[in-house]
Amino acid sequence: MLTNAPRGTKDILPEQTRHWLWLENKIRALCEVYGYEEIRTPTFEHTELFLRGIGEGTDVVDKEMYTFTDRGDRSITLRPENTASVVRAYLQNKLYGNGGLTKLFYVGSMFRYDRPQAGRLREFHQFGVEAIGEKNPAVDAEIILLAREFLLSLGLNDLTLKINTVGCPKCRPIWRRKLTEYFTENADELCADCRRRLEKNPLRILDCKVDGFKDFMDDAPKIETCLCDECREHFAAVKKFLTAAGVEFVVDNRLVRGLDYYTKTAFEIQYAPLGAQSAVAGGGRYDGLVREIGGSDTPAVGFAAGLERILLALELQRLLPVNAKKITAFVVSGGTEAEAYAFKLLTDLRRLNIPAAMDFGSKSMKAQMKAAAKSGARFALIVGEEEVATSTVTVKNLETAAQERIPVAEVSAKII
Fold first, then answer.
1. Is 353 exposed, middle or buried (0-12, 13-18, 19+ CB in 10 A)?
2. What is the pLDDT, as a whole number, of residue 194?
3. Domain map of the chain by residue range?
4. Which of 73, 111, 184, 298 has the lowest tally of Cβ within 10 angstroms?
């Protein structure tokens, strides 16, 4: 039906928009403290960017991307995530030109064809941070801290930080081979999706929502037995920095994240009150992505947080701010001549940045006063024929019911 939004999408109504703006202001304030600058990338990209960046064999690429052919016969995809887009923008616009670490953040819509559920839509919004150009594990720790501080600043205290390392191109193939051998021996236990993953990407089996709770998964080979010295030292340093910052964490050997570009550090922050779908932020290091997209070897690390899930958590815990309409004055008029006088008063107040409103429905003054009370305004500014004749306004305090008539030139000073 034309009156219904497409399945998996949602209108953000004015009452909710105020919550979104509050949340986005929190994001921008925190990123300023950490020295990250905002970037805005296109909503769609060439499909090849995500095929190479995210990796075939992932659920995102195989099942969830919104891909179409445009009129120029080009394959285009609505962005399912934004890290690949940020890296593409980093390369195209030569943001590496100044050398050192490039620190970026974004807030925007992403698109995945998934089963809609609470806090998880087909058009969803992410806040993400990317730090490109530095291999020091302290940057991994900074990214994790930023994600955690963001959630804590909202009042979400019951958080669990899970971390892991997924190795690098030197040591991960060893782990992959061991996983393939192990899961091949247990192929009869795997779901249909995991049997397909067995050939393309056995790491994805570790975070399968179907097989993940089966007993045989506990004996799957662990990455820690396969790590090269560089990855082992990097992970140890990340843990050292987190401990130095007073951050508690849990090492989860089965945490691999859902995208292929991760190397070394992977992490996820869970908020227990959300239940089974408790992840509210996650990310990690992706040292090979810049090269995969067409640049030189460049270390990078980042995270993303789903804003719908965070707002759902805030709503469940009654942590959202109370939305108060900020109308200072409601102009009430009576009579034809007074209407134009009232409209000029309304315009003058707004030009002084004083929030003001009036009822344009040609209602009686009694009905307008009811509308004034309903609006949440602090003052009703009443204009009738007598006020027009004497260049005055009757100012009524809607909280105390006290009122007085004053010259129109003094109204702004009276109500501020």
1. exposed
2. 85
3. 14-171+227-316, 329-415
4. 73
